[in-house]
UniProtKB/TrEMBL annotation:
This is Reverse transcriptase Ty1/copia-type domain-containing protein. CDD domains: RNase_HI_RT_Ty1. Residues 54-114 form the Retroviral polymerase SH3-like domain. Residues 262-504 form the Reverse transcriptase Ty1/copia-type domain. InterPro entries: DNA/RNA_pol_sf, RVT_2, SH3_retrovirus. Residues 159-168, 180-194 have a biased composition (Polar residues). Residues 159-197 are annotated as: Disordered. It holds the Pfam family RVT_2.
Length: 674
C-alpha cells in the first residue's frame, strides 16, 4: 500500500490480495508445494498476477457512451475475485470496486489522485439510526415531514462491504444548511427531494440528506430486492443458466419473441433431412449507472453445419457501398435536406425463408410430449447462412408494395416520388438512412416502417459505417478522427511528427529480399487499418496502395514506409488513379496499379484519342469502355476538357508530389482540417 500510495481504506483489499498471492507461493521449502497445490492437488497458475495498486483501464460495459468516447475507464488494481477469474479494480470516477476480466494494466504507473472509498453497507447500517416516534410534546403534520426517497444500493459497494466497514464508535457529521422555512432539492440521480418544516430543520437531520430516510431493515430489504431482480452472473453453459430463475425468464422471453413473429412450427423429425443445431448466447444489459437491469438471452442457429445446395442456395444480400453513402450525402448537401437514421430490431426474424430448414429444439426447452420433434422454420433466425438474404428480400418486397422504386444499379437504394419531391432510402442490412427535401415524406417513411417492423429511431445521422457525419447548413462533412486517434495509440505512434506530404518524392521502397523480417500480422493489420481510413482520406490512398504491394513478404523497410509513406520504385508498371465529383462534392476516388506495362504513349493518352474518331493499329488493345466513351462524346453526352498539368487533381492518386502541389490538390478536393 505504501509503494502504491493508497490510503488506509484499502487495507482490507491489500490483506485479501496478500492472502491470495501467499496461498499460491512457495512459503516453506520443506513441503515443496504451495498451500493451493496442497489443497487442490494441482499447481496454480500465477501468470495473471499483477502489481497491487498499479494503474489499469477497465472496459466500460455499463455506461452508455457515444462512439467517440473512450472505451475504457481509469482504475486502480486492488486484487482478485474470489468467485471468478476477474480482477478487482477500484473505479476512480465511480469511487467503487468493480470486478471484470476486461482489464489492461500499466504496472509502471501509480495513481497520484486522491482516492477514497464510497460508504459500505456496514457503514450505512451503523450510520442510519432507527426511526424514532415523535414525543408527546411534538406536533407534526405528516404532510410536512421529510419525504422518503427510494434508496438504490450500489452492487459494487455491497460486494466490498466486508472490506470497507467502519467501527461503531465513529461519529457522523451533520450537514450544515442555512435556516429557511422551505428547502427544495431537485429529485434527480444526483440529489434527493427534501422538504423542510420549522419543526424539522435541516441541521437536525443526521447524515447525508441525499441518502434519504432508511432504517436497518430497509437497507437489507432494498439490497435483497435488488439481488433477486436480475442475475449478476453471466453463464457460460446452458445447464448453468437453467439453475438461475432470471436466466430462465430471459430465455423464455426470447422464445416468446419467436412465437410472436411466428418463426417456427414443431413437427415430427423428417427422414433424410439435415437438422441444424441451436445454442444460447447470454448478455447482461446495464443502465447509465452501470447497474445490471436486464438479462438478455438470444437463440442462434449453428449455421456452420449447413451445406451449400442442400440447406441453402443463395446467401448473398446486397449492402450499400461506401461510395453510395458518400453520393447519398453529397446529394443531400446539394438539395439541402437532413439525413436521418433508423435501425430495425430483430431484423432477421422478419425474413421469410424459401428453403426448408429444420432446427433442433432449444437446449433446456424440449417439449415433454414430443422430445423427438424438431422445429420447421418459416422465418430466418440469427446464425443461418441465408438469413441476411431472407431479410433483404422481405424488406425489398415491403418497400416495393408501398410505391418505392429500387435503383437499377444500386439495389440498396430506394426512391419514391411525390409531386415535385422525392424521398431517398439507403439500406445497409438493418441500418437505414433516409431523407427528403420535404420533411413530410421523411415522416411518412418512418411511419410506414414502424407499421410493419419494430424500429429504433436514431434521429439525425451522426455515425454510419465508421464515418463521423456532421450535418450543417453550410454542408455535410465526414471524418474518422476518433478512429485515427485510436489507430495512433494502437500502434504506439501518438508522438509521431506530422509530414507535409503523404508520399515522399526522395525515399523509395523496393522488394528488399535481404531485409529484416517483421510480423506479418502487424504489417497487414496496419495496411488494413489505412485502407479503411481511405474512406474519408483520399490524400493517403496512393501511399497506402504502394505499401499494400508488400504484404506477402514485408520487411522492416516496408514497415517504416507504412509509417512514413515512402515512394515506390519497384517496376515500370504505372498507377492509374482518379476521382469523381457530384457538382463540387467529392464522392469517390481510386488508385490502382496497372496490370501491364504501357507499350505506347497512345495507351496512356487513350482519353485524348477518344476525341478523334481515328483507328490505329497501336490502339486496338485499348479496352472497349474507351470506345464507349468516344461514342458518347460524339453524341454530346460527355464533354472532355483539357486540364493543365499543374491543376491535375488525379496526380495525388498516381505519384508523389511536393508539399505545394499536395496542399493545392487537397484544397481542390474539398478536404479541410477540423
Amino acid at each position: 500500500m505504501i509503494h502504491a500510495g493508497l490510503p488506509m481504506s484499502f487495507w482490507a483489499e491489500a490483506v485479501n490480495t496478500m492472502c491470495f498471492t501467499q496461498n499460491r507461493s512457495l512459503i516453506h521449502r520443506i513441503h515443496k508445494k504451495t498451500p493451493y497445490e496442497m489443497l487442490k492437488d494441482r499447481k496454480s497458475d500465477v501468470s495473471f498476477f499483477h502489481v497491487f495498486g498499479c494503474i489499469c483501464y477497465i472496459l466500460n460495459q455499463r455506461d452508455p457512451r457515444s462512439k467517440f468516447e473512450p472505451k475504457a475507464d481509469k482504475g486502480i488494481f486492488v486484487g482478485y475475485s474470489s468467485i471468478s477469474k476477474a480482477f478487482r479494480v477500484f473505479h476512480v470516477n465511480r469511487q467503487c470496486v468493480e470486478e471484470s476480466i476486461h482489464v489492461k494494466f500499466d504496472e509502471e504507473s501509480y495513481t497520484d489522485e486522491k482516492v477514497t472509498h464510497s460508504p459500505s453497507i456496514f457503514q450505512e447500517l451503523l450510520s442510519c439510526p432507527f426511526d424514532e416516534a415523535p414525543s408527546a410534546g411534538d406536533k407534526t403534520d405528516s404532510s410536512d415531514s421529510i419525504v422518503p426517497v427510494p434508496c438504490s444500493l450500489n452492487r459494487d459497494t455491497a460486494a466490498t462491504s466486508a472490506d470497507n466497514s467502519l467501527g461503531a464508535n465513529e461519529t457522523l457529521e451533520s450537514k450544515d444548511s442555512p435556516e429557511t422555512d422551505n428547502v427544495s432539492v431537485s429529485n434527480s440521480p444526483e440529489s434527493a427531494s427534501v422538504t423542510e418544516h420549522r419543526d424539522h430543520p435541516v441541521d437536525r437531520i443526521i447524515g447525508n440528506i441525499h441518502d434519504g430516510v432508511r432504517t436497518r431493515s430497509s437497507v437489507f430489504n432494498n439490497f435483497c430486492m435488488y439481488v433477486n431482480f436480475v442475475s449478476m452472473i453471466l453463464p457460460d453453459k446452458v445447464h448453468t443458466a437453467l439453475q438461475d430463475a432470471d436466466w430462465i425468464k430471459a430465455m423464455q422471453e426470447e422464445l416468446n419473441e419467436f412465437e410472436r413473429h411466428k418463426v417456427w412450427t414443431l413437427v415430427p423429425r423428417p427422414f433424410g433431412k439435415t437438422i441444424t443445431g441451436t445454442r444460447w448466447v447470454y448478455r447482461n444489459k446495464v443502465d447509465k449507472n452501470g447497474i445490471i437491469t436486464r438479462n438478455k438471452a438470444r437463440l442462434v442457429a449453428q449455421g456452420f453445419t449447413q451445406i451449400e445446395s442442400i440447406d441453402y442456395e443463395e446467401t448473398f444480400a446486397p449492402v450499400a457501398r461506401i461510395e453510395a453513402i458518400r453520393l447519398f450525402l453529397a446529394y443531400a448537401s446539394y438539395m439541402n435536406f437532413i439525413v436521418y437514421q433508423m435501425d430495425v430490431k430483430t431484423a432477421f426474424l422478419h425474413g421469410v425463408l424459401e428453403e426448408e430448414v429444420f432446427l433442433n429444439q432449444p437446449p433446456g426447452f424440449v417439449d415433454k410430449d414430443h422430445p423427438d420433434y424438431v422445429y420447421r422454420l418459416d422465418k430466418a433466425v440469427y446464425g443461418l447462412k441465408q438469413a441476411p438474404r431472407a431479410w433483404y428480400e422481405t424488406l425489398t418486397s415491403y418497400l416495393l408494395e408501398n410505391g418505392y422504386r429500387r435503383g437499377a444499379i444500386d439495389n440498396t437504394l430506394f426512391i419514391k416520388n411525390k409531386g415535385s419531391y422525392m424521398v431517398l432510402v439507403q439500406i445497409y442490412v438493418d441500418d437505414i438512412i433516409f431523407g427528403s427535401p420535404n420533411e413530410t415524406l421523411s415522416k411518412e417513411f418512418a411511419e410506414i416502417m414502424s407499421q410493419r417492423f419494430e424500429m429504433s429511431m436514431m434521429g439525425k445521422m451522426t455515425f454510419f459505417l465508421g464515418l463521423e457525419v456532421q450535418q450543417q447548413k453550410s454542408g455535410i462533412s465526414i471524418c474518422q478522427s476518433k478512429y485515427i486517434s485510436d489507430l495512433l495509440v494502437k500502434y504506439s505512434l501518438s508522438d509521431c511528427k506530422p509530414a507535409s506530404t503523404p508520399v515522399s518524392k526522395t525515399d523509395k521502397i523496393h522488394a528488399d529480399p535481404t531485409g529484416t523480417d517483421v510480423n506479418h500480422s502487424l504489417y497487414r493489420g496496419m495496411i488494413g487499418s489505412l485502407l479503411y481510413l481511405t474512406a474519408s482520406r483520399p490524400d493517403i490512398m496512393f501511399g497506402t496502395i504502394l505499401c499494400a504491394r508488400f504484404q506477402a513478404n514485408p520487411k522492416e523497410s516496408h514497415l517504416m514506409a507504412v509509417k512514413h509513406y515512402a515512394g515506390c520504385n519497384l517496376d515500370n508498371k504505372s498507377t492509374s488513379g482518379g476521382c469523381h465529383f457530384l457538382g463540387n462534392h467529392l464522392i469517390s476516388w481510386s488508385s490502382k496499379k496497372q496490370t501491364s506495362v504501357a507499350i505506347s504513349t497512345a495507351e496512356a493518352d487513350a482519353i485524348q484519342i477518344t476525341q478523334n474518331p481515328v483507328q490505329h493499329s497501336k490502339t486496338k488493345h485499348i479496352e472497349i469502355r474507351h470506345h464507349f466513351i468516344r461514342d458518347n462524346v460524339e453524341k454530346g453526352k460527355v464533354v472532355l476538357e483539357h486540364v493543365k498539368t499543374s491543376e491535375q487533381l488525379a496526380d495525388i492518386f498516381t505519384k508523389a508530389l511536393d508539399s505545394q502541389s499536395t496542399a493545392y490538390i487537397i484544397g481542390e478536393l474539398g478536404m479541410i482540417t477540423l
